Automatic annotation (TrEMBL):
SUPFAM superfamilies: Ferritin-like (SSF47240)
Keyword check for Lipid biosynthesis: no
Protein name, UniProt field: Bacterioferritin
Binding site for Fe cation 1: 18, 51, 54, 127
Ranges for domain Ferritin-like diiron: 1-145
InterPro entries: Bacterioferritin, Ferritin-like, Ferritin-like_diiron, Ferritin-like_SF, Ferritin_DPS_dom
Entry EC no(s): 1.16.3.1
Superkingdom assignment: Bacteria
Top enzyme class: oxidoreductase
Amino acid sequence: MRGNPEVVDYLNMLIGGELAARDQYLIHSRMYEDWGLTKIFERIDHEMQEEASHADSIIRRVLFLEGTPNMNRDDIVTGEDVVTCLKADLALEYHVREKLAQGVKLCEEKGDYVTRDMLRQQMSDTEEDHTYWLEKQIRLIELIGLQNYIQSQM
Ligand SMILES: [Fe+2]
Ligand SMILES: [Fe+2]
């Protein structure tokens, strides 16, 4: 089914952000694993899979709307330690959240309600799951100190 060209272009821009989130979680989870932080590794490995599935849904939607998916991913920021990794991931989630919100608005304007529902679902994963979890980790580090936090993630 032929999609609205502006919606297709917007979805193509969103793919880049989801692929970046996937790859940033890929490198950070592997760093956590290498540091022996098994718990946070498992959590971030799971986030990586969710970002891949977000990208997958958007790619499938672009194909369905008779567009050509753009597989260029946005740049990633690799942290150097637990705190800079968490903060880089949180910054990326905030950025993606803003882009999704604008996408929901555009889909609404163009009357593409199925795409809107897909993006809205990804927004709740972004806000209520990924962003919320990252905010909690940063708050925990402030509360209990980095050493204690790191110990809790071994
Ligand atoms: Fe995502
Ligand atoms: Fe996310």
